[in-house]
Q: What sequence folds into this?
């Protein structure tokens, strides 16, 4: 990992100032400011259609129809909301696509093993289940060893157990690699579990910001965890009073919270 | 949210289905596909139609409904076919014709695909190439034969040129449409993976355009035979078309039919090749394959 000595090392992995993105005159992102420190794990919450994916696309450098300042590292990786695998490439070739040099198939296989898909590396994408395709897409992002990892609801189609495994995997990759992560999610619990900082997007800006200073690994049974989760749910407009038993015993109630957040 | 909190009392809200007034539901057995699969093999089913047609034809000829100077009987045609093969005139004519088609196809494919790449990949290419091609496309290429004869004489060149021309347009249109039909989300994904411009073309655009390109190839093959017939009938001293013109002068309907059958079989062969290519190259495609 050669560091680029010619450029000043930025204090930020992401620096966004006054970002505006409009579709047909409607500003979906409206003068948004955002800073992410190198190595920081940031989760982004927000109502459906509030512009989370749009922000992610901008940060990925895929959308240049913008106003404002956006600074991002050169090495980025994205896992999109939809898997977007190339249907004409077998899974392992999809994982290696775009990697510099001529990487061995073993590299892809290792990444696929990590997401529990090692046995499907030879498959065509059309034969994957929804969750498998999503995991393949995740493996494709992780294998790139980026400085900034952009994840758009990467666990959306996964069952509870696979989801926990995938969350753990992302946590591990993040800690090993020390990359900054921006994770878009609808699952408040997931956000509190993984992130250093949780952002809530609304009205085209970051409307709320919550630092999570719980020790890792985090325990969802911790009362402070439940407190954070409840306050975030409140920010999102979920009436937490209606599920007050959930605040006392979060572990038992987590399915209900997921159901409401999803 | 009430999913896991619903007190048991709520369950009584759900209209209870009383057990004693069981309404008889009309259940349907779902037959497994293996049981429904036809007992007759596919190739046999596909050949039944032509064979029946052949039998009918033989019957009409034998009963005299179809006089032999209008159309020779299948038996007679088979005999003539054997003769033509034996004296070597049919194989040599076929070789000549095949060579012409191959050359025309090759040039047409190169030109058509090349132009499609230029106008499919670059907007400036589209502006420069697409309009003139759309214009030329509407000119019936057969109408250009006299012009080609004046330009290129009566050798192989005008024949190859006419086939090339016929092949170029369907390929151009389909490859171009194929390129422009590639999912923008996949292009975006490719970009985000750090693919270079050429990498995008190679790994995303071209594979994505392949279904269109093969459709274009199918059309092109059909047109190639058509162009061949025209080119060989207008002026030629060899090839299947020439054999037919000769047969016409001697009122030999049997020879003409043999030639037509040869055309048909060559067309079938071409179709088979494209089908095999599709099966091989498009196995990734999650599309409807018929019931
Ligand atoms: N290409 C586009 N043209 C017009 N409007 C668009 C376009 N892309 C997104 N939008 C609009 O911008 C808004 C934000 O979309 P975005 O995809 O960022 O939402 P999101 O926050 O990711 O939602 P979700 O949680 O449902 O994925 C939506 O109202 C959407 O309709
Ligand atoms: Mg989205």
A:
């Amino acid at each position: 990992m050669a560091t680029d000595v010619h450029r000043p090392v930025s204090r930020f992995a992401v620096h966004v100032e006054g970002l505006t993105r409009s579709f047909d005159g409607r500003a979906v992102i409206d003068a948004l400011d955002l800073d992410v420190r190198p190595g920081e794990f940031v989760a982004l919450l927000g109502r459906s259609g509030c512009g989370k994916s749009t922000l992610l696309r901008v940060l990925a450098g895929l959308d240049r129809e913008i106003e404002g300042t956006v600074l991002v590292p050169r090495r980025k990786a994205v896992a999109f909301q939809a898997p977007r695998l190339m249907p004409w490439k077998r899974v392992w070739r999809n994982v290696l696509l775009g990697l510099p040099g001529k990487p061995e198939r073993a590299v892809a296989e290792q990444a696929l093993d990590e997401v529990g898909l090692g046995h499907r590396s030879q498959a065509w994408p059309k034969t994957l289940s929804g969750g498998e395709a999503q995991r393949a897409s995740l493996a494709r992002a992780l294998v790139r060893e980026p400085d900034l990892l952009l994840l758009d609801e990467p666990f959306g189609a996964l069952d509870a157990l696979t989801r926990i495994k995938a969350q753990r995997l992302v946590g591990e990759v993040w800690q090993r690699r020390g990359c900054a992560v921006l994770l878009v999610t609808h699952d408040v619990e997931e956000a509190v579990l993984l992130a250093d900082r949780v952002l809530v997007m609304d009205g085209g800006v970051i409307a709320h910001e919550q630092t999570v200073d719980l020790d890792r690994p985090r325990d969802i049974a911790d009362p402070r965890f439940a407190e954070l989760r409840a306050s975030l749910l409140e920010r999102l407009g979920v009436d937490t009073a209606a599920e007050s038993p959930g605040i006392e015993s979060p572990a038992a109630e987590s399915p209900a919270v997921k159901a409401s957040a999803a | 949210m009430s999913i896991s909190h619903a007190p048991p009392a709520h369950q009584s809200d759900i209209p209870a289905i009383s057990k004693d007034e069981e309404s008889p539901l009309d259940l349907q057995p779902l037959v497994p596909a293996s049981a429904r699969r036809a007992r007759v093999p596919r190739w046999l089913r596909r050949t039944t139609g032509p064979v029946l047609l052949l039998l009918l034809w033989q019957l009409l000829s034998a009963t005299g409904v179809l006089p032999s100077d209008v159309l020779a009987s299948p038996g007679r045609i088979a005999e003539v076919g054997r003769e033509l093969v034996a004296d070597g005139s049919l194989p040599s004519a076929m070789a000549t014709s095949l060579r012409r088609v191959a050359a025309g196809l090759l040039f047409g494919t190169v030109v058509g695909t090349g132009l499609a790449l230029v106008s499919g990949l670059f907007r400036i290419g589209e502006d420069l190439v697409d309009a003139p091609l759309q214009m030329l496309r509407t000119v019936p290429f057969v109408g250009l034969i006299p012009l080609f004869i004046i330009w290129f004489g009566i050798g192989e060149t005008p024949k190859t040129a006419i086939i090339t021309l016929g092949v170029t347009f369907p390929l151009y249109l389909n490859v171009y449409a194929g390129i422009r039909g590639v999912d923008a989300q996949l292009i975006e994904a490719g970009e985000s993976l750090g693919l270079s411009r050429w990498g995008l073309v190679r790994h995303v655009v071209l594979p994505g355009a392949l279904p269109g390109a093969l459709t274009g190839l199918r059309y092109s093959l059909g047109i190639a035979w058509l162009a061949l017939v025209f080119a060989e009938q207008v002026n030629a001293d060899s090839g299947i078309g020439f054999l037919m013109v000769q047969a016409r002068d001697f009122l030999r309907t049997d020879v003409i039919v043999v030639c037509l059958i040869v055309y048909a079989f060559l067309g079938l062969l071409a179709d088979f090749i494209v089908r095999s290519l599709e099966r091989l190259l498009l196995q990734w495609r999650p599309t409807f394959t018929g019931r």
In short: The first helix of chain B runs from residue 33 to 36. Chain B has eleven helices and no strands.
